[in-house]
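Q: Please design a sequence for this.
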């Protein structure tokens, strides 16, 4: 089950860092049967994460969001980004 989910998560992404993270979870958890359930949860979480999610998590941990990519026109995303930077919750 863990191996199948890890392969699916790695196959469905274009991000090398995500593939490396899934591979690390897989190799670490295949060596210890007691951690298999934790590995399944970690791979499921990694499968759902994409680049925008990582940017927000990084901003929560390390500070402000990096500037939006040039040409991005997502108005709701811009509003959300501004509210995160200013600390407002509107």
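A: Design:
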């Amino acid at each position: 089950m863990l191996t199948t989910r890890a392969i699916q998560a790695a196959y469905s992404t274009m991000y090398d860092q995500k593939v490396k993270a899934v591979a690390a979870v897989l190799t670490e958890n295949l060596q210890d049967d007691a951690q298999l359930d934790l590995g399944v949860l970690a791979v499921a979480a990694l499968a759902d994460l994409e680049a925008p999610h990582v940017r927000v998590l990084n901003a929560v941990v390390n500070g402000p969001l990096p500037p939006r990519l040039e040409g991005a026109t997502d108005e709701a995303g811009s509003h959300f980004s501004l509210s995160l930077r200013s600390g407002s919750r509107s």
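Q: Thanks. Anything notable?
A: The mean pLDDT is 77. Residues 16-30 form the longest helix (15 residues).
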